[in-house]
Amino acid sequence: xxxxxDEGVVxxxxxxxxxxxxxxxxxxxxxxxRAVAKGIRKTKSRLSGRLEPLTHVNMMCWRGRELDxxxxxxxxxxxxxxxxxxxxxxxxxxxxxxxxxxxxERHAMKAMFQMLVGALRTLEDRLSPALLGxxxxxxxxxxxxxxxxxxxxxxxxxxxxxxxxPGEGGFLCRTCRxxxxxxxxxxxxxxxxxxxxxxxxxxxPPSRATAESERLAMLAAEYHLDRRLRSAHRGxxxxxxxWQGWSTTxxxxxxxxxxxxxxxxxxxxxxxxxxxxxxxxxxGSPPLAS
Length: 290
Ligand SMILES: [Zn+2]
Fold this sequence. Notes:
5-stranded mixed β-barrel, 8 strands
């Protein structure tokens, strides 16, 4: 069997039989990879602890006909601070879920992978109020569905943008307004994020603009992904205690076999200014951090 090497961030895992798991990775060279980690649920497995959602790894896999098989794994980053903080974990899981939705199997995604790892590093360092919104806006741009911020998507005028409607494709002027109303500061913040000012945006204190940017980015992402983002809404609805239980599965072993969902949890992400500009895959993507 052929083997290959790649980096990966574990997006989620699901139990397979008595001792194995199927692990879903985001990788730069191979896109989304689903691979079996054999024996990982045995206590003495050398893989155990290395393939939990959020972990950044170097790995070698055997190429399989349907599923690949994890052969070797080396942890690059475990993101301990994120795992120890429910609020950060919630942000991370939302990012992992969006990447899981967007990534394609066997389609290289260098820019998206760099963005994910960069975002995780930022999040490991601190919880910036603008982080999740910024990550989502940039991901939408990368996917070719970023918002137009130069003019009203309704009439094309360059007058002040005061509303946002993802179904209309973005921001709207006072005459065309429908959907969500938007503050001026929010439009300024999103422009900043998407035009080279990410680092400064991430340094902003919490404000109406950071909250609104995140809420609108979530709406836009949901619209384009055509589904509610589970992590995001679950986080808002359940208690801290329940959250802790859920976040540890990120393992899910406590759940009876017949109740194991088809997709387990996954945390991750941050746009790291320190990661530097990402070479645009295909040419259109803006630098991640500049
Ligand atoms: Zn208009």
